[in-house]
Amino acid sequence: MSYMDIALDIIARISGVERSTIEPGMEQVANLGLDSAKALELLVELEEQLDIEIGDDDAAKLNTVGDIYAYLERVSPATA
User: How do residues 37-50 score in pLDDT, each as one tens digit?
Assistant: First the structure.
């Protein structure tokens, strides 16, 4: 399973939004309904499940699903 698939599963579970309806342009707050606690939970889950560390500066830039995908593309191993 790729980093993107794992991330999508995590986003769907935490947001309660159907996985098949999640699109890159969706914003964490406006479209997925994540408050600050849920957004933090999302970051922690991504770090734990993908064995990565997301710095504060990077975390502040992850506003949309597409932002998360772009970040994961940069940090994922070539085989993921």
Answer: 999 999 999 999 99
- Amino acid present at 1: M
Active site residues: 35
Global pTM? 0.91
10, amino acid identity: I
Helix or strand run (H / E) with residue 77: none
27 beta partners: 64
Type of residue at 30: A
Rounded to an integer, what distance in angstroms lies between the CA atom of residue 56 and that of residue 12? Answer: 23
64 conformational bin, left if phi > 0, alpha if psi -120 to 50, beta if neither: beta
